[in-house]
Amino acid sequence: MSYTAVPNDVEAAPVPTLHELQCELGKLPVESTAPAPVAEKSSEVQAAATATATIVSVPVPASSHSRHNVQSCCCGCSLATGIRVMSYLDLVHAFSMYIMAAWFLWLKINEGRVDSMLKNQLSADETASADEEGTQNAASVDTIAESAESEDGQDTEGTIEQINSLIDFQTYMIPFYVLFGVFLMHYARKGFKAANGDSAACASYLQFRKAILVVACVTGIFATGLLGAVIQIGLAYYFMVVVRSHLNNLVMAQTDVASASVVVLA
Question: What are 61-66's contacts with CB under 8 Å, separation 24+?
Answer without folding.
Answer: 62/252, 62/256, 63/248, 63/251, 63/252, 63/255, 63/256, 65/248, 65/251, 66/248
